[in-house]
Amino acid sequence: MTAAVIERLAGPARRRAGQIVAARAILPAAVLALLGWRAGGVWLALGLLVSAGVTIVAAALREARRLDEDWLVATLDRTHPELEDSTDLVFADAEGLSSLQRVQAGRIAVRVEAIPPRQLLEVWPARELTTSGIIAVALATIVLAWPDSRVPMLAPADEGLAASPGVPRLVGQALMVEPPAYTGAPTQTLGTLDARVPEGSRLVWTLRFVPQPAGAGLGLLEGGRIGLEPGAGVWRASRRLTRSLLYRVRPEGGRGLPPLHRIEVIADRPPEVRALVPGATLTMAAGGQRAWRVMFEAVDDYGVMPEATLRLVLAQGEGENVTFRERSLTVRGTGGGQRMRFGTNIDLGAIGFSEPGDLVAQLTVRDAKGQRVQGPSVILRRPPPRPADSGLEAMTRQALPAYFRSQRQVIIDAEALIATRPRLAADRFGARSNAIGDDQRLLRMRYGQFMGEDSGGGASAAMPTNDAEEGEEGHEHREAAPSVFGALGDITAEVGHTHDEPEAATLLDPDTRAILRQALDAMWQSEAALRLGEPKRALPHAYRALRFIKQVQQATRIFLARTGPQLPPVDESRRLTGKREGIGARGLPDLAARAADPVPGAAWRGLEDGRAVDLPALQRWVAANAARIGDPLALAAAIDGVRVEPGCAACRARLRAELWKVMARPAAGVVRRARGDAMGRRYLEALR
């Protein structure tokens, strides 16, 4: 019964208390939301409304919970004298009361049941609510009448169009550029509609027209439209840009063709990394060296992340039998902003670099956008110990450094050279490429010995242990020379086994020899490209040579002799007869210069001759080849100028100039030799 009495009397009072709390707070919350809408837009206003609503509900529940049993007893005793200050006996435990208290509790309970709940309701604070409502309305009026802080100061606009009564025209303009947060660049407001902005920037156009049009938008040259929304006497539009565009401001009901405006998006460049310490790509380890200091510098247009990854590759072994181990270290940079340095001391003993081999260090950095770039590699080389030279061994040993003994090393050096190409002068780059070509040549000569080749690349009587210098001929082509004591060739002739037949100068079966021949051919191609200063073109051949060499190493069958080549017999009856039957034609191919891109070439010639130009086809060509055009926006604007004014000579000249920049240069052709006079022609016909 006690709970029912409390709910009957306190329930309505609790609801009235919550309603009064909500009424007192709802008007200030509405004014706060209105302020948020003017300051930050609809989303800020909605956020403030939701926050205010949650706060009001929490305050109302807290006020309702305050009206509990103690409040009810105190209120009844204060407002109803007939209860004789004994209301607490009604809600007390009957077992703990005396007989007199039980009698009094029964009398008071009857009187409590007769009390109507409305007598306990809190009176509505009409005067307070009226006053707060008046204040809220005044504040709302002030907020709505206050100038919009989001409308920037507009710069005067002049589109070059004649003013006409009743025709909307652009009179004020502003362009707000909000770069991406990772750039750290501030938001700026421009007084022009042309801009160069970072990639991913948010642009807000604010325009004013006189008189106000029924609608307005930004017409894109490539097609499409960005709608403008009215508000506070201006028109706004916003877009986040990832590519450049050309556009026109087009109010509804406007006359004439407005000029083109250009927004050029600047892509975020990846970081640039260069090695500071050591100063050279290849460094030889000193005796007893225990640590290696490396330092790199990274530069980025918006900043480099303070942590980078240092990749260490340990290559140990000789020839093609090289084992690799790799690990990574985290290096923190020093400095700040757009330029940072990353340096560390590498403990050679901790990473196991105690035997002859190479230790390659390469830094990977990341910019604020998240682009990862691998820097150049630096190499610490520990050469193998040189054996003591004595006696005959010192005279016959070939001491080639490990730098010339591995096809993998040629590949590593070529890749390192390609990575440093932007920082090297052309002559230094060519010299280093030629030096790698020397290494490739020495390696080709070493493997060529197994094919019976001498140092010049032809057949030789030398075994793979031949120590003849470059340019010497085989033994079967030289006349006997007097013996000289101590001469290497005389010692070999007297003591060694010379293998006079080139066919015997191999230890490989025919299939393996064919693979080795392919490896040598690939080395030839690699060497030729390296000599020409083109290591990037040499890499595919170098990799192919490495694959063939590994196949040769895996060969299981070997022979000590081989048979000679089976060549077709020579027809002696045709020699020196001048007969040309069965010989194919050897006419020169047609090398007439052909335009690589016929569309811009045809348009350029049409503009020169004053003929009509297929502008839609030219626009499609620009869209398909925008990546290789230096300034596609300028070319698109020139095309639009000719489309708008076909008879404009200056527009056609501007388009011809832009097309000349993007047209492919014609290939060099062969000029056919003049046929000569009658006697010369008879002579040429007789030769045929």
Topology:
Layout lengths: L1 H39 L1 H25 L2 H11 L7 H4 L8 H15 L12 H20 L9 E2 L12 E10 L9 E3 L4 E4 L3 E9 L5 E5 L4 E3 L1 E3 L2 E7 L4 E7 L9 E6 L5 E6 L4 E3 L6 E9 L7 E12 L2 E16 L2 E9 L9 E10 L5 E11 L8 H6 L10 H13 L6 H23 L39 H8 L14 H22 L3 H19 L44 H12 L5 H10 L7 H13 L4 H14 L15 H10 L1
Please tag this protein with its features:
eight-stranded mixed β-sheet; alpha+beta; 688 residues; six-stranded antiparallel β-sheet; 17 helices; 19 strands
Protein architecture, described:
This protein has 688 residues and is of the alpha+beta class. The protein has 17 helices and 19 strands. The strands form three sheets. It has an eight-stranded mixed beta sheet, with no helix packed on it. Helix 8 (407-419) packs antiparallel against helix 9 (426-448) and helix 8 (407-419) packs antiparallel against helix 12. The longest helix has 39 residues, at 2-40. The N and C termini lie far apart (132 Å). Residues 392-404, 455-506, 556-564 and 591-595 have low confidence and may be disordered.
Number of helices: 17
Helix content: 25-40%
Largest sheet: 8 strands, mixed
Helix- and strand-based class?
alpha+beta
Oligomer: single chain
Number of strands: 19
Percent of residues in beta strands: 15-25%
What's the rounded overall pLDDT mean? 78
**How are the strands of the largest sheet arranged?**
12-14-17-16-15-18-19-13
Taking pLDDT < 50 over at least 5 consecutive residues as the criterion, the unreliable ranges are 392-404, 455-506, 556-564, 591-595
Shape: elongated
Q: Alpha-carbon distance between the termini?
A: 132 Å
Query: What value does the Rg take, in angstroms?
Result: 46 Å
